[in-house]
Amino acid sequence: MENDSLQTLQTFLEDPIFLLPEDQEKIKESLFSTSEIHADEATLKVEKSTDLSAETAEKSILPKEVHSAPVLDPIQVRGNFTKGILVIHEESSLNSDVMDMLVKMLNACGHSMTEVGLLAAESLENRSMEDFQSLNAHVVLKFGRVKHPINQLPITPYEIHTEGETEYLFADALTSISEDKNLKRQLWAALQLLFNLSAGSK
After folding, report:
1. Considering the domain 85-194, what is its CATH architecture?
2. What is the mean pLDDT of residues 39-50?
3. What is the pTM of this model?
């Protein structure tokens, strides 16, 4: 009888089947409780996905810590610096006698102080070669000691060295040159070569 189909069973059951009120209530309770469970599960899934999406969004909004090197101001050069001639001097400041000697030598080379930029050595400390090159100097006259990577260039004092489009001349401190005639002669001879002057002009 278990293998008989519903149609076969119908031939034996002549009267309609009725559910008792108690059975109807039980069926309703079981149906509602099942649907509530599914509804609760769906709510939990939605809440979890909402929490995860909110957490993801919050993480994406939060700023990331970026460690970058401090940005330094450009190197400040005194003077108009119109011809790209840069004078780097060891002294913090140049006294009147030293400045007078420098002006006379540059004038003898056909250049005025308006074409020159002055830079104290201390202004180059802790600055990179890239910072220095950003000045775009065409001629660099370095007088005395300077704490800077520029010292790594293979330059012999009082001899002209070309690096790219820049010409370099290293010499003693301007104060020392102003007090020593031999150093003055060495500097003058080097400046004549640097600025393509004839040996007899002064």
Report:
1. 3-Layer(aba) Sandwich (3.40)
2. 53
3. 0.63
